[in-house]
Design goal:
This protein has 469 residues and is an alpha/beta fold. The chain folds into two domains: 58-114 and 414-451, Urease, subunit C, domain 1, CATH 2.30.40.10; 116-401, TIM Barrel. It contains ten helices and 19 strands. It has helices at 140-155, 171-180, 224-238, 251-263, 274-283, 296-305, 313-321, 337-349, 370-380, 386-401; strands at residues 58-66, 75-82, 85-91, 103-106, 111-114, 116-121, 159-164, 188-191, 195-198, 219-222, 242-246, 267-271, 287-289, 308-310, 354-355, 418-421, 435-440, 443-447, 450-451. Strands 1, 2, 3, 4, 5, 16, 17, 18 and 19 form a nine-stranded mixed beta sheet that branches. It has a seven-stranded parallel beta sheet with strand order 10-9-11-12-13-14-15. A three-stranded parallel beta sheet has the order 6-7-8. Helix 4 (251-263) links the parallel strand 11 and strand 12 (267-271).
């Protein structure tokens, strides 16, 4: 994990050539690693020293009912966690001897499961709904405090990893670093940085401030293929784990952005609709957000190219309950609960991989945990069981995120992001409200259902200020 620059740097758009066809997949640099290479536990996969940043905590969970997220049935187990990783799982009556100084957690009568993943969040958006920094909402101090508050709501709801797909300036990168270091409680943060769109595109409605004119805004208005490449490179430089695009754009612009991101090793997700979804799919984006309209041919092409979908049905249910999505030039179509669910079913029937995200803008994060539960209920409307919904929220979401090798299931060698629930959520989703313990990166962050902060550890001062005896 690298330090993130706190200054805003705007890249000049000079001399770049747009590719004729965008690279179809992010470049995987693992082929050039030789031997036992250790990389950062994020999507950037930066080489780090072995053991870098791993917590010293040792935790032994006994008497657990383990729902491991792989698709199998729950079963009795003990789980040993060392230095942020699951190092041993004993099933049945097998016992694990407690290592020295291990914290013992008795999970009798409770279910241990993988932490939930939310694929669509906005940590710094203001409660007035402004994504563009209107009314001073691009102030980085206020944005950081808003983000820290939302992180607590998410982690106390059992969410241990989030994709942040559009936030203010450099704030999400700083929040990511602080959570990773254990300095503030929250889920792992995988930030996209600023939402990149064409001039006048999604997120710019209302005339609020945008980048690059206002570097710390949450939306970047780019122009032309070179402008889109510049915006992608800026997010990468700041520390982006993925790139988020929003319509509108031209075919050449979206191709340039996807090509640039994939060459840098980053996935691309897009908020697009109708003809722009087709452009994005043809350009090779990795994921399409929202249940917005698109042609049957575009749906088939998504399935053929392995492009996933993060449906986010719950925010549209909230929007429709409030009268509908008004005043947006990027939402000029009929959008009801029936049409959004129909799109989800159409994608599923076509074989498109579907993930779970909430897109809780304005003050909707205060609806957690029910907001996340509502999206799980929505998934059940697609004819899935409670257990299948949880597998989607954990294993499938980790696949879409690009972290399936490290997150999403409770297996030996995986990172220790776990929940302990006083019930059987794989049989009754509502039991997720009985959350007892949340472990993120091998650290207990939530205990008794609320954030658990241990007393700070005092460093030894360089000299004593105590009065002489």
């Amino acid at each position: 994990m690298r330090k993130t620059a706190l200054s805003a740097i705007i890249l000049a758009t000079v001399g770049w050539t747009t590719s004729v066809a965008a690279a179809e997949k992010p470049v995987d640099r693992a082929q050039w690693y030789v031997g036992d290479n250790t990389t950062s536990d994020d999507l950037r996969r930066v080489p780090v020293p072995k053991g870098f940043g791993e917590p010293a905590d040792v935790i032994l969970i006994r008497n657990a009912r383990l729902f491991d997220g792989t698709g199998g049935a729950a079963h009795p187990a003990q789980i040993l966690i060392e230095r942020g990783h699951i190092t041993r799982i004993a099933s049945g009556g097998e016992l694990i001897a407690a290592p020295k100084d291990a914290q013992i957690i008795d999970a009798a009568g409770k279910t241990v499961m993988p932490g939930l993943i939310d694929l669509h969040t906005h940590l710094t958006y203001g409660e007035g709904g402004a994504a563009t920094g209107a009314d001073g909402e691009d102030d980085q101090a206020s944005a950081a405090l808003r983000g820290a508050e939302r992180l607590r709501f998410f982690v106390e709801s059992g969410v241990t990893a989030i994709r942040d797909v559009g936030s203010t300036g450099v704030t999400p990168f700083v929040l990511k670093e602080w959570v990773w270091a254990g300095r503030i409680p929250g889920p792992r943060v995988f930030p996209a940085g600023q939402l990149i769109t064409g001039i006048g595109g999604h997120g710019t409605e209302g005339g609020g401030r945008t980048a690059p004119t206002h570097p710390e805004a949450a939306v970047y208005e780019a122009n032309g293929p070179d402008g889109f490449r510049a915006a992608v490179r800026l997010q990468f430089k700041r520390g982006a784990d993925l790139i988020k695009l929003g319509s509108h754009f031209s075919p050449d612009e979206v191709k340039a952005a996807v090509d640039e991101a994939h060459n840098l090793g980053l996935k691309v997700t897009v908020d697009a609709e109708t003809i722009f979804t087709r452009m994005a799919v043809e350009a090779g984006v990795d994921c399409v957000e929202h249940p917005l309209p698109r042609s049957d041919e575009t749906v088939k092409l998504m399935a053929a190219k392995g492009i996933c979908s993060d449906m986010t049905l719950v925010p549209y249910q909230y929007i429709n309950a409030g009268g509908g999505y008004m005043g947006s030039t990027s939402r000029r179509f009929t959008e009801t609960n029936a049409t959004t669910l129909a799109m989800a079913k159409k994608l599923q029937d076509a074989g498109v991989k579907i993930g779970i995200g909430t897109d809780l803008v304005v003050g909707w994060y205060r609806y957690l945990p029910d907001a996340y539960l509502q999206e799980l209920r929505n998934y059940r409307l697609l004819d899935h069981t409670a257990a299948e919904a949880l597998v989607t929220a954990t294993r499938t979401n980790s696949e879409i995120l690009g972290m399936a090798d490290r997150l999403g299931t409770v297996q030996t060698g995986k990172l220790a992001d776990l929940l302990i629930v006083d019930g059987k959520p794989d049989e009754a989703l509502e039991d997720l409200k009985k959350l007892d313990v949340v472990i993120v990166n091998g650290r207990v962050v939530v205990r008794g259902g609320h954030v658990d902060l241990a007393r700070h550890k005092q460093d030894k001062p360089p000299y004593s200020t105590a009065p002489a005896q």
